[in-house]
Amino acid sequence: MILVSVLVALTLAVQSISALAIPAVEAPAIRREWTSLTLAARKEYINAVLCLNSKPSIIPAGQIPGALNRRDDFTAVHINQTFGVHLDAVFLGWHRNFLYLYETALRDECGYTGYQPYWDWSKSVNNISAYPLFDGSEYSIGGDGLYDPSTGDYNLGPYHFAHGAGGGCVTSGPFTQLELHLGPIPISALFTQTLPSNWTLRNNHCLRRDFNVPVAQQFSNGTAVAHLLAAPDIGEFQSRMSGVGNAPPGPHTAGHLQIGMDMFDVFSSPNDPAFFFHHSNVDRMWTIWQARDPLNRQFALNGTTVNYDPAGAPIADLHTEENWGVLGRPKPMLELMSNRMFDFNFAYEDMQG
Prior knowledge:
Blueprint: H1 2-20, E1 29-31, H2 39-54, H3 70-81, H4 91-110, E2 145-147, E3 154-156, E4 159-161, E5 167-170, E6 179-180, H5 188-192, E7 205-206, H6 213-219, H7 222-229, H8 234-242, H9 251-259, H10 274-291, H11 294-297, E8 321-322, E9 331-332, E10 346-348
Parallel strand pairs: 1-10
Antiparallel strand pairs: 2-5, 3-4, 6-7, 8-9
Helix pairs in contact: 2-4, 4-10, 6-9, 9-10
């Protein structure tokens, strides 16, 4: 009887995955690289972000006093979930849906008619400030921060990086008046697995950046991307994406580090609008990698539901349920594995379909 029950359960599981492993019939929404957008389309996106920043938080009153607006909601949820959605098996899927929820909020709440653009790291490796996303014009998301000599250097395991030419408040572009309310949170909290007791409280500060071209040139170039996409399995892909242990920073980590300051805060990095462009490209990398061998990669998972995959942590599988707090409904990992199934129906402009 037990054997029969197990066989029935396995049969139903296979049938459910097989039945759902059919891409959406409708044409996908297309996420485009920022430089592919017209100036008018860039302005529309920027205005939608400013609109979201003007709308009140939907987090129940008193739970997170520092969350004042809808953008704060995304930062708050990311902070609260950080320990379970980085450097583990659910990182890619959790952030895929996080990005989708942000894109949906821009469209449904602020009338944006496009989709979340992505930042192709290879286009900015030699001069971040000249790249149209960060050139400080009205059609960008702002430039570097003011130079702050007190800004410390960055240390990642055995790797040491001098800080860039900024470190202070962003003073160019449409987000110079952006007031942030949550964070920063020290990176040491990632290792103690404990958030500061006051993390929910309001802490007004400006948007800060510290562009670092040497980091971009070394870890976000075409060779680094090719190395990532050549990963033979999902475990290696995840390792190459972020870099773990004594490995050099992967393209994911390098993207945060080369913008610096608020973007380099692993907890509150969604404070910087650049976060969503960066993670759109992270998702693009995963989508491209999956498409090269869908039979073996579409539903591939490796690891646990805890940062750094410690021994004894719960192993992630397609039934593992993830959540995004007030942003959207809980979902099993199964629903997060494809860009063309369940709630998702999107593609990237260089790999439509």
